[in-house]
Amino acid sequence: MTAYKDNHGIVAKPAPPPENNCMIGMVPWIEFEHYSPVPYAQSDCFFPVIQAGKYTMHEDRLWMPYSFTCHHAVADGYYVSEFLDGVQAQFANPHLWIDK
Fold first, then answer.
1. Is residue 75 situated within a structural domain?
2. Please, are residues 17 and 47 in contact by the beta-carbon 8 Å criterion?
3. What is the pLDDT of residue 81?
4. Most buried of 8, 15, 19, 82 (most Cβ within 10 A)?
5. 58 is known as an active-site residue
6. Domain for residue 84, yes or no?
7. Euclidean distance between CA atoms 3 and 16, whole angstroms
8. Are 85 and 78 in contact (CB under 8 A)?
9. Does 6 map to a domain?
């Protein structure tokens, strides 16, 4: 905390992040229908941001809100939908990837 306490912004460390990274965050105390951590002002933030929220039960099913925010110059909506379909497939089939 001492080293980075005065750095404010999306990336706390002064060095640029490594290639092919994304920010992943969790706000487990809130439910949301939309969440965007990136300000609407001009930005050079080109890495994706994935954010998840509080999971709840609805009609005997677990629901967890999540959002995917990225700059359009980096990914078209088609690729975002491909990613989100993959995430949904993982959630729908946890037996395929969780150690038993």
1. yes
2. yes
3. 92
4. 82
5. no
6. yes
7. 16
8. no
9. no
Question: Residue 82 is part of which domain span?
Answer: 23-38+45-93
Q: Which residues pair with 63 in a beta bridge?
A: 56
Please report which confidence band the pLDDT of residue 78 belongs to, taking 50, 70 and 90 as the band edges.
very high
- In this predicted model, which residue has the larger pLDDT, 99 or 92? 92
Structure tokens at 28: 């487990």
Q: What's the mean pLDDT in 39-64? A: 82
pLDDT of residue 94 exceeding 80 = yes
pLDDT tens string 2-48: 877 777 766 667 677 778 788 888 899 999 888 777 666 666 667 88
Residue 59 makes CB contacts below 8 A (sequence gap 6+) with none
Q: Nearest-5° angle of CA 86, CA 89, CA 91?
A: 115
In a domain, 57, yes or no: yes
